[in-house]
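Thread title: Can someone regenerate the structure for this chain?

I was given the following input by a collaborator and told the matching structure tokens would be attached. They weren't. Posting the sequence so someone can regenerate them.
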Amino acid sequence: MSEEFEVKGPHEEILEGGGEKPGHHPHGFNSRLAVMTAIMASLGALLSYQASLTLGEAIISKNEASIKNTEAADQWNFYQAKSNKQNLAELAAKLTGGQERDDSRKESARYADEKAAIQTKALELEQLAHEADLRSERYLNSHHRWATGTTALQIAISLAAIALLTRRGWLEFASLACAAVGVGFGALAWLGM
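Best answer:
Regenerated them for you:
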């Protein structure tokens, strides 16, 4: 007569409720950790989404700043070209006489007026570039908060898994502490701090 023996590993015994200690309720522990992990994973997904969103906004704002800086540089180049033309017109006014001198002075005045308008536009573009740079920095700082919160929640989920496998209550509390840190960073990011 052959008898078959089933050898169960510690993991199977825990899942089936074997090897319980007196006064110990593994199913409550398992359920609590499962719910806690699901909540942490959901929060982590939300924080990760926000981290990606703010990183995208930071990149867009930095790109906008680069574009405005380029446009401002173009305006300053245009300004310089008008200055050169104004200088040539002033030189022509000094070297000529009569109607040509008057025409050269009018040209010089026209270039001076055009330069003023170009300078105003260039300064406005520089201001827009500066504002876009600041906006990018704010988004990037927010991104770091969201990303740190996401990382803390991922660590919390890992600790919860280890707590489930090792049945160590202190790991459950460590997991909750990491989750609280993650949520705290998420709250700081949401508040713009």
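Residues 29-190 form one domain.
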